[in-house]
From TrEMBL:
This is Lysine--tRNA ligase. Its cofactor is Mg(2+). It is an enzyme of class 6 (ligase). Binds 3 Mg(2+) ions per subunit. SUPFAM superfamilies: Class II aaRS and biotin synthetases, Nucleic acid-binding proteins. PANTHER family: LYSINE--TRNA LIGASE, CHLOROPLASTIC_MITOCHONDRIAL (PTHR42918:SF15), LYSYL-TRNA SYNTHETASE (PTHR42918). One of its GO terms (cellular component) is cytosol. It comes from Candidatus Kaiserbacteria bacterium GWA2_50_9. Its EC number is 6.1.1.6. InterPro entries: Aa-tRNA-synt_II, aa-tRNA-synth_II, aa-tRNA-synth_II/BPL/LPL, Lys-tRNA-ligase_II, Lys-tRNA-ligase_II_N, Lys-tRNA-synth_II_C, NA-bd_OB-fold, NA-bd_OB_tRNA. Keywords: Aminoacyl-tRNA synthetase, ATP-binding, Ligase, Magnesium, Metal-binding, Nucleotide-binding. GO terms for molecular function: ATP binding; lysine-tRNA ligase activity; metal ion binding; tRNA binding. It comes from the Bacteria. Transmembrane segments: none annotated.
Length: 485
C-alpha cells in the first residue's frame, strides 16, 4: 500500500510539472486524425506521401534504445511510436521523459515509417498528454490472476487480457444477430415492464423492492415479459419479441446468474413443431455469424450444430438413465435414487415435482446434443398446452446442447379455464413452501378470456453464448455482480 501511495504522489507531482510546461493533463479534445488500425492499414500510402498523422492511445510499454524510445500505444489496436530527442526537440523530449508513465493516454504526431526490423511505426515529431494515469497498470504480460480482483477491476482485465475485448464484441454480435434474424422474419421488437405486481413466465424466486411513489412492494421480472407478450397476442400482434434483462433471486453456479439478458419471442398461429424448426435455424445462424463455425468443444463434449437434431422424450430419458418411471413412482423412490446417484438436493420447498426435476437434471448431463427435449409432463409446465393425444404431456421443447437445456419453448396454453386451474395448483405449491412456483395472475387469465390465438413462445438466455464461448455465464458477463469489500 505504501508503494502505491508513493507512486500516486509521484504521478500527481508530474501533473504539476505538465502544468508548469503549459500542457494540460486532462484536455477535453484530441487532435487524432485516425485510429491505430487505420494507420496500420494505410501505412504504405502514408509513408509514401509523407502525410502528417496524429495517433492517440494508452501507453502500454516504453523501451529505451540508443537514447531514443519505442512507445507502444493502444486504442483498441496496438501501434508503435518512435520518440527521438532530435525530432521532438530538447525541452519536449525531456518533458516526455519526466512525465510519461505506462498507463498514460497520449497523442503523438509524426510520419509513418518502418523500423530496421520492418515494424510499421510512427516517427514522432510532437506529443501531448490526454489523460495522466495516477495508478500503475498491472504487468501487461501477466495481467490479473486473482479471479475476484479480475471481476472487481474488469476494466483492467479487459485491457490486459488477450481477446477479452473480442469476447465483448462477440457478445454484441450474438444478440444483434438474434435481433436481426427475428426482424427479417417480421417479428416486432417490444418492451415490457421490469417491475411487476405478480411475477410470471418461469419457476423462479423473484427479487422484491419497494415502489415509493405507489407505496407498494413490486417484483423484478423473472422472464422477458412472457405474460405481457402473450397479452400482445390477444391484442392482435402476430409476432413479437423482447431482448432484455431479467432477475432471479437464486443460487450462483457455472451456468446460473441472478441478473442476465434473455430473449423471448411469441408467434401467433404457430405451434411448438414450427417453433423447433425456427429455433434450430436461429441457433445455427447465430453460431455462424458470431463464431464462424457450427462445431464447438463444450466441456467434455464435441458439438456439431450442423448434425441432425435428435428428439429426447422426458419420461423415456429419465427411465433410460435411472430405471424410474416418473408417471408411476413416488417421492420416496426418487429420493432414494438421488441418494444412490450421489445427487445433492435441498428439502426446502421440496415436493415430487422438484424431485423429478432434480432427477432430470442428472439425466440431461448424459446427453451430448444437439437436440430437443420433448414430452415434458404438464405438472412441470404450467404455461404450456397439453398434447391432445396425451393430456398429461405438454407441447413443450427445450434445446439440449452439451448436457444442458439452452432455451425453453412451447405451444402456449390459451385455454383460460385450464390456465386458471394450473395457476391454482401452482398457488398450492407456493403455500406449501415452494417459492419458485408461479403466482396466480388473475389479470392474465382475464386477458385469455378475450381469446388468444394458437401461439408458440420461446426464450433463450445468455447461457447459450457462454456455452458456445466455452466459459461460465459469470465470465461471459462484462461486469458480474460482486459483494462489496
Amino acid at each position: 500500500m505504501a508503494l502505491l501511495e508513493t507512486v500516486h504522489a509521484d504521478r500527481v507531482a508530474k501533473i504539476a510539472r505538465l502544468k508548469e510546461a503549459g500542457m494540460e493533463a486532462y484536455p477535453a479534445r484530441t487532435n487524432r486524425t485516425q485510429t491505430v488500425e487505420e494507420f496500420l492499414e494505410n501505412h504504405s500510402t502514408l509513408e509514401k506521401n509523407s502525410e502528417q498523422v496524429v495517433l492517440a492511445g494508452r501507453v502500454m510499454s516504453i523501451r529505451e534504445h540508443g537514447g531514443s524510445l519505442f512507445v507502444d500505444i493502444f486504442d483498441g489496436t496496438k501501434g508503435q511510436c518512435y520518440v527521438q530527442r532530435d525530432k521532438l526537440g530538447e525541452s519536449s523530449y525531456d518533458l516526455f521523459i519526466a512525465t510519461i508513465d505506462t498507463g498514460d493516454i497520449i497523442e503523438c504526431a509524426g510520419l509513418a515509417f518502418n523500423t530496421k526490423r520492418g515494424v510499421p511505426s510512427l516517427d514522432a515529431t510532437g506529443w501531448r498528454m490526454l489523460a495522466k494515469s495516477l495508478r500503475p497498470l498491472p504487468d501487461e504480460w501477466f495481467g490479473i490472476k486473482d479471479e475476484d480482483e479480475r471481476f472487481r477491476k474488469r476494466y483492467l482485465d479487459i485491457l490486459l487480457t488477450k481477446d477479452l475485448a473480442g469476447r465483448i464484441k462477440r457478445r454484441s454480435t450474438f444478440w444483434n444477430t438474434i435481433r436481426q434474424f427475428l426482424l427479417e422474419r417480421d417479428f416486432v421488437e417490444v418492451e415490457t415492464p421490469v417491475f411487476e405486481t405478480t411475477t410470471g413466465g418461469a419457476d423462479a424466486r423473484p427479487f422484491v423492492t419497494h415502489h415509493n411513489a405507489l407505496d407498494m412492494d413490486v417484483y423484478l421480472r423473472i422472464s422477458a415479459g412472457e405474460l405481457w407478450q402473450k397479452r400482445l397476442m390477444v391484442a392482435g400482434l402476430p409476432k413479437v419479441f423482447e431482448i432484455g434483462r431479467i432477475f432471479r433471486n437464486e443460487g450462483m453456479s457455472h451456468e446460473h446468474a441472478q441478473d442476465y439478458t434473455q430473449m423471448e419471442f411469441y408467434w401467433a398461429y404457430a405451434d411448438y413443431l414450427m417453433g423447433m424448426e425456427l429455433v434450430e435455424d436461429l441457433y445455427k445462424h447465430v453460431a455462424l455469424e458470431t463464431f464462424g463455425t457450427l462445431k464447438f468443444t463444450i466441456g467434455a463434449f464435441e458439438i456439431d450444430l450442423g448434425a441432425p437434431w435428435e428428439r429426447h422424450d422426458y419420461v423415456q430419458t429419465i427411465q433410460k438413465y435411472t430405471n424410474i418411471d416418473i408417471t408411476t413412482t413416488d417421492l420416496e423412490t426418487i429420493e432414494a435414487k438421488l441418494q444412490e446417484l450421489e445427487v445433492k438436493f435441498s428439502t426446502e420447498g421440496w415436493n415430487k415435482s422438484r424431485a423429478i426435476d432434480t432427477l432430470w437434471k442428472y439425466c440431461r448431463r448424459q446427453i451430448k446434443g444437439p437436440g430437443f427435449l420433448v414430452g415434458i409432463p404438464k405438472f412441470l409446465s404450467p404455461l404450456a398446452k397439453s398434447d391432445p393425444k396425451h393430456p398429461e404431456i405438454t407441447e413443450r421443447f427445450q434445446p439440449i446442447i452439451a448436457g444442458s437445456e439452452l432455451g425453453n419453448g412451447y405451444s402456449e396454453l390459451n385455454d383460460p379455464i385450464d390456465q386458471a386451474e394450473r395457476f391454482a395448483e401452482q398457488s398450492k405449491l407456493r403455500e406449501a413452501g415452494d417459492e419458485e412456483a408461479q403466482m396466480y395472475d388473475h389479470d392474465f387469465v382475464e386477458a385469455l378470456e378475450y381469446g388468444m390465438p394458437p401461439t408458440c413462445g420461446f426464450g433463450v438466455s445468455e447461457r447459450l453464448f457462454s456455452f458456445l464461448e466455452g466459459i461460465s455465464i459469470r465470465e461471459g458477463q462484462i461486469f458480474p455482480l460482486m459483494r462489496p469489500r
